[in-house]
Amino acid sequence: HYLLGVGRADCTGPVAEIPLMGYAKAGQVAGGLLSRLYSRAFIVADAEDRSRVVFVSADIGMVSQKLRLEVLKRLRSKYGELYRQDNVILSGTHTHSGPGGYFQYTLLWISSKGLIRPSLEAIVSGIVKSIDTAHQNMRKGRILINRGTVENSQINRSPFSYLENPAAERSRYASDTDKEMVVLKMVDEQGQDLGLLSWFAVHPVSMNNSNHLVNGDNVGYASHLFEQEKNKGMLPGQGSFVAAFASSNLGDVSPNTRGPFCVNTGESCNNPQSTCPTGGATMCMAMGPGGDMFESTRIIGHNIYSKARELYEEASQEVTGALSTAHQWVNMSSVTVELNTTHTAKTCKPALGHSFAAGTIDGVGAFNFTQGSVEGDPFWDGIRDMLLGEPSNETKACHSPKPILFNTGEMSWPHPWHPDIVDVQIATIGSLAIIAVPGEFTTMSGRRLREAVHREFASHGRAEMDIVIAGLCNVYTHYITTYEEYQAQRYEAASTIYGPHTLAAYIQLYRGLARAIATNTVQDLPPGPEPPVFNIVNLTLVPALGVDRAPRNRTFGDVLQEVRPQYRVVHRPCSSFKYLSIHCLTLSFSLQTEHNFLTVERHNSSAASWQVVQNDASWDTRFYWTKGSLGGSNVTIEWHIPGGTEPGLYRIRYFGHYRRRASIFRVVTVPFQGTSSAFEVT
């Protein structure tokens, strides 16, 4: 038996005017909410409670170093040495529809318009709160493991890079993506369901870069479905059962299963450069299985959920044995790699190649950059040299054949542009080893890493180990391709920031951690150089908050466009009405994560009262915020009425806040609400 605890907490943060993190598209800022973001925590302790492992999967793009260090600091002040850098794994689901603004390295700091304190605070406090909840709910229980294949939910978005891998290696695998899902089922002594923790490799990019609504994408929807099923009768985000769909080696894996097409002509652009005859690379986009991105998100999310549900119900193999954790900080810009008995190589100072700017078929870049660039471009290189300085010959040679666009490892104003110090970490729970990786491993990179770690355990008598990769953990270092994929220099390779031997370096490092665990010598591992903490100024390009004003003859919460009196549920119609509202950023921290923007309520005639049936965490409601003129703003709330909705009388309510000047020096935040007319669903 183990002691088990699970917890979930809101980590949504502001949902207006904050850049969304993932596509790095300049105009893609938040303008509302489709579903809330959550941090989901799982704590496992051995029966004597001598050692613990914490795994957190948060609905965010990735875990940043700033985020991790801040969480560890708060855990230390609460729990002393109980939760530490070696036994706490923080993983991001990699949704591309969550707020940015929580980074300390300059490249990501720039792409999310600076450090945005409300965003950072919401995520940090959400993660800590989910761990608190799990910590308070520890009880005796069991862990069961199962695995199975998820079909029709992924494609390899760089198949031409994958084909660079040796034919003999490729012939060992049935597919160019990892279709396997690993599921942990947690139950208490009485067999009561506690939680589900699963890993599956797919990019949460079913919502494309035209989206402005905050949400957890396909894996967030899978969590929602599983939790709604297990927490019967509860509103979304409520109930004790926690279901996490964590990221894995998703580097080259897209959920957009119809593949890449030229949006202007409709012809396929599945070629090594992902370009179209007219319009070039910017026209080449992959499509999901649905009629629009909302439907695609639901289809892929439902596929993932239904396989997880099947594996969860059928799980019978119990996980037993001791807990171990191993962690090191490593300077990834200068690791000496032993390639074989006679040859060594080195990793490089970080740099991004030209194809980084091309983006992918899930979200194309700008200008005329294409994937697969092994030559520089004199025009862009000239601009780079003027603005950022030319890369050194040493860095150019180290990264070859990558033509360097941003030599981030040699740029340190106002702070370093990319990390040098990176976490490597493994936690074992009995026969399960979780490899926490600081970025996006491609399919084949992940296979090589799992195999190498398994071999290392087996060589020390631990051949029974199950190996899973947890992606986007602890610090973000972009992509990790194989040496062969690196030669093709598509987007993932151009974003392999420590050069062609990055994967070999990680394999060497994780084998070292596995060896230490298997031989019980973790205490002899050198901790490595501590990561720096930069004193980031609160400089942000996000507009500052002013006071809010309603137009003449209007008050906050007035309905601007009413609902119709009646809606018939046939082909998922949608009730939608507008409110005069206010800037969502005005919420104070305490309100920001707990505050609910909307409810759908059904009239209970026997009790003569209104009962809440949906909140803003529901995937059937959409909350759109738009900035108005002269300090005002409007909100549109849509309820996409699902089939099977109970007929009756309904209304929609909106809960907002506005900022009012109380004195010259003091601005106060005032809550208000608005309510639609009642309408009938038939």
TrEMBL record:
Keyword match Lipid metabolism: yes
Family: Belongs to the neutral ceramidase family.
Known cofactor(s): Zn(2+)
Organism this protein belongs to: Dryobates pubescens
Species classification: Eukaryota, Metazoa, Chordata, Craniata, Vertebrata
GO-annotated biological processes: ceramide catabolic process; long-chain fatty acid biosynthetic process; sphingosine biosynthetic process
Name of the protein: Neutral ceramidase
A single GO cellular-component term on record: plasma membrane
Cofactor binding note from Swiss-Prot or TrEMBL: Binds 1 zinc ion per subunit.
Catalytic activity: an N-acylsphing-4-enine + H2O = sphing-4-enine + a fatty acid
EC number(s) on file: 3.5.1.23
Coiled-coil region: none
First-level EC class: hydrolase
Entry-linked InterPro entries: Ceramidase_alk, NCDase_C_sf, NEUT/ALK_ceramidase_C, NEUT/ALK_ceramidase_N
Signal peptide: none
Domain named Neutral/alkaline non-lysosomal ceramidase N-terminal: residues: 2-508
Keywords: Hydrolase, Lipid metabolism, Metal-binding, Sphingolipid metabolism, Zinc
Binding residues annotated for Zn(2+), in chain numbering: H94, H203, E440, Y479
Gene Ontology molecular function, alphabetical: metal ion binding; N-acylsphingosine amidohydrolase activity
Superkingdom of the organism of origin: Eukaryota
Cited PANTHER family: CERAMIDASE, NEUTRAL CERAMIDASE
Residues annotated as catalytic: S254 (nucleophile)
Entry annotated with the keyword Hydrolase: yes
Stretches assigned to the Neutral/alkaline non-lysosomal ceramidase C-terminal domain: 511-681
